[in-house]
């Protein structure tokens, strides 16, 4: 987003204020939108080609905030922000929100979470975007081009304050990580047997970790994730 350096700052500032409001209601977001005069973001004496490019970049910048690993509230705020940007843009025909097919499963899952938590205003906003055909489905989230690693990093860096802390636990639940943990535990058991009197099983004196450690470790992580999810839904259902 080198062409408009203030664009990311303004969008993140609006999402930050919405986060501080501790709300997921559209009316609260709309109030912040008006207070920050976001309806004028597309105003200015720029030519049509630049207006199209600016609109594309604005929509592309906000879209990642609508996906994991960002918090439930930030994702709702990003949905509202996408809705506002899409409907206030000056391009004719309207520029669409670029959506990679790989991300649609997460989007559909989030839509169901909105309905389950009875956030009908957010669910309606999502449905309105669908009905207006605001989404443009693509194979890749961005246009492929030759870019340096430095530029790619600059374009994908996001605010840590928006991230969902539960995602750190989710990293432990990755299939490869759990499989590696299981393999290490099995190797540990074999090594204990080799140095034991009865090599068919380890001596009790060196049995410091239970045999079902890997399985219980996975169960604890999954239980924590379910608890965290229920806690999040319970919190926002009363906002």
UniProtKB/TrEMBL annotation:
Q: Which GO terms describe its molecular function?
A: sequence-specific DNA binding
InterPro entries registered for this protein in UniProt:
SNAPC1
Report the Pfam families cross-referenced here: SNAPC1 (PF09808)
Which GO terms are recorded in the biological process aspect for this UniProt protein? snRNA transcription by RNA polymerase II; snRNA transcription by RNA polymerase III
Kindly list the GO CC terms recorded for this protein: nucleolus; nucleoplasm; snRNA-activating protein complex
- By its UniProt entry, which PANTHER family does this protein fall under? SMALL NUCLEAR RNA ACTIVATING COMPLEX, POLYPEPTIDE 1, SNRNA-ACTIVATING PROTEIN COMPLEX SUBUNIT 1
Instruction: Report what the protein is called.
Output: Small nuclear RNA activating complex polypeptide 1
Which organism's genome codes for this protein?
Answer: Pseudonaja textilis (Eastern brown snake)
> What lineage is this protein's organism placed in?
Eukaryota, Metazoa, Chordata, Craniata, Vertebrata
């Amino acid at each position: 987003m080198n062409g408009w350096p203030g664009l990311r700052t303004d969008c993140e500032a609006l999402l930050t204020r919405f986060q501080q409001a501790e709300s997921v209601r559209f009316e609260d977001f709309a109030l912040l939108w008006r207070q920050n005069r976001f309806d004028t973001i597309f105003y200015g004496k720029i030519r049509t080609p630049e207006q199209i490019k600016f609109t594309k970049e604005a929509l592309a910048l906000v879209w990642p905030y609508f996906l994991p690993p960002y918090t439930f509230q930030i994702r709702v705020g990003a949905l509202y922000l996408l809705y506002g940007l899409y409907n206030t843009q000056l391009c004719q025909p309207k520029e669409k929100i670029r959506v990679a097919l790989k991300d649609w499963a997460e989007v559909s899952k989030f839509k169901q979470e909105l309905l389950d938590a009875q956030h009908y205003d957010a669910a309606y906003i999502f449905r309105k975007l669908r009905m207006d055909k605001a989404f443009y489905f693509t194979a890749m989230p961005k246009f492929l081009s030759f870019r340096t690693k430095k530029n790619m990093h600059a374009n994908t860096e996001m605010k840590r304050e928006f991230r969902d802390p539960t995602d750190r636990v989710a990293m432990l639940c990755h299939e490869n990580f759990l499989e590696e943990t299981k393999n290490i535990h099995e190797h540990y058991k074999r090594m204990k047997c080799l140095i034991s009197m009865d090599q068919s099983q380890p001596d009790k004196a060196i049995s410091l970790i239970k045999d079902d450690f890997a399985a219980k470790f996975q169960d604890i992580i999954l239980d924590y994730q379910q608890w965290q999810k229920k806690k999040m839904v319970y919190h926002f259902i009363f906002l």
